[in-house]
Amino acid sequence: MSKKALYAGSFDPITRGHLDIIQRGARLFDQVYVAVASNTSKQAFFSPEEKVALVEEVTADLANVQVLQFTEGLTVDLARDVGASVLLRGIRNNTDFEYEMNMAEINKLQAPDIETVILLSDAAYRAYSSSMIKEVASFGGEVEAAVPKVVAQAMFAKYKDLNA
């Protein structure tokens, strides 16, 4: 039986920390679905299509990773739709832990048959959040330690267009 995991997030933008979780998940599971979601509580920087394209580009070398656009509904419902028995998550710090622990409990209530597996972020990526990276990039600062080069280029191009 194939073990499938679903890793959902807004990935706005996808960071090296996200990519590390995806790569490690791809080693642990037969199939990893990366669900690019829209976070309704935040103003998106990249469009859903731009985010999907960037995630596809940075995961292109991972044969067992498939990127999906996820616009509505519960994550556990999408997991069931793709046949995933695991929700893959990453945590950087205590704040993430508290949030993910609560989310895991809510997901377990909705879908007792789907497990949450949490990977600890690599220490090299713990300080980076998408919002922090966007702020630094908006001022033209160095972000390639935090995001893949193609993502940094896309961010700078987007800021250039917004400021034109």
Write a brief caption for the model:
The chain has a single domain (4-123), classed as 3-Layer(aba) Sandwich (Rossmann fold). The chain is 44% helix and 19% strand. The chain contains six helices and five strands, in the order E-H-E-H-E-H-E-H-E-H-H.
Report on this model:
The structure is a single chain. The chain has 164 residues and is of the alpha/beta class. The chain has a single domain, classed as Rossmann fold (3-Layer(aba) Sandwich), CATH 3.40.50.620. It has 6 helices and 5 strands. The chain has helices at residues 16-28, 48-58, 75-82, 94-110, 130-138, 149-162, and strands at residues 4-9, 31-37, 65-70, 86-91, 115-120. Strands 3-2-1-4-5 form a 5-stranded parallel beta sheet, with helices on both faces.
Write the layout of secondary structure elements.
Layout lengths: L3 E6 L6 H13 L2 E7 L10 H11 L6 E6 L4 H8 L3 E6 L2 H17 L4 E6 L9 H9 L10 H14 L2
Parallel strand pairs: 1-2, 1-4, 2-3, 4-5
Pathway: Cofactor biosynthesis; coenzyme A biosynthesis; CoA from (R)-pantothenate: step 4/5
Catalytic activity: (R)-4'-phosphopantetheine + ATP + H(+) = 3'-dephospho-CoA + diphosphate
Cofactor: Mg(2+)
CATH fold-type name: Rossmann fold
End-to-end CA span = 53 Å
Low-confidence stretches: none
The amount of helix comes to 40-55%
Strand order in the largest sheet: 3-2-1-4-5
Strand content: 15-25%
Radius of gyration using CA atoms only: 16 Å
* Main CATH class: Alpha Beta
The CATH architecture name reads: 3-Layer(aba) Sandwich
Class by alpha and beta content = alpha/beta
Pathway: Cofactor biosynthesis; coenzyme A biosynthesis; CoA from (R)-pantothenate: step 4/5
Domain Cytidyltransferase-like: 6-135
Family: Belongs to the bacterial CoaD family.
Subcellular location: Cytoplasm
